[in-house]
Specification:
alpha/beta; single chain; 5 helices; about 45% helix; globular
Amino acid sequence: MAENTHVVLVEDDPFLSDLASSRIQSAGFKLTHFAAADDALEKLEEVKPDIILLDLILPGMGGFEFLEAVKKDEKFKNIPVVIISNLGSKEEIEKGMQLGATSYLVKSNTMPDDIINKVKEVVGQ
């Protein structure tokens, strides 16, 4: 099943995106990575992800703005979005969930395997 699951990762940190990308791919998921939210938003229809892993602090369009745009769009609103961010205050987590995130992981408390487990949980594998 995993190879049929398409994960979009929106993360601008090269180290973290490489680490997460290799772990996601080695778990058997198809992966498309974007370093900027506006690029991801522009290509979503073409890419057709099953789940989006989203950082919040991004160049240009921020993660909250991206999440809001995705959830307002009829074509994308049902795609689960898991936020993976260094922003971990109660207010930021609540804002992410109110905007429609499926889950919220704080980077400092999250290992690569936690991300894989979360993807499997959210897409039902």
